[in-house]
Amino acid sequence: MSRHAIDLGVDHVDTAQFYDNGFVDDVIREALRPQDDVLVVSKVGAVSDPGGPAPLRLAQRPEELRAGIEDNLATLQLEQTPMMNLRRADAGLTILVGGPSGS
């Protein structure tokens, strides 16, 4: 399906190594060809944690972010990507819907 999407003109793929513990990156890597003009964007800041209380665990320390970037590039078999997003969770931060009164 990924190869078919690229053949139909999809030129942007957003992924993360922690999606299904790397499976999604494997599918994308297999679909891409060197001549494809596809922008691959990934994200770091979390790691798979299948045995933990949640399927993902935050990985926000500088060394974890660097390792995440390097692991993503290796899994996708890319030398670089023009953009790497940060999955960030700020504890205690809430989003107000409709303003301070909630309306």
From TrEMBL:
<dbReference type="InterPro" id="IPR023210">
    <property type="entry name" value="NADP_OxRdtase_dom"/>
</dbReference>
<feature type="domain" description="NADP-dependent oxidoreductase">
    <location>
        <begin position="3"/>
        <end position="84"/>
    </location>
</feature>
<dbReference type="Pfam" id="PF00248">
    <property type="entry name" value="Aldo_ket_red"/>
</dbReference>
<dbReference type="InterPro" id="IPR036812">
    <property type="entry name" value="NAD(P)_OxRdtase_dom_sf"/>
</dbReference>
<protein>
    <recommendedName>
        <fullName>NADP-dependent oxidoreductase domain-containing protein</fullName>
    </recommendedName>
</protein>
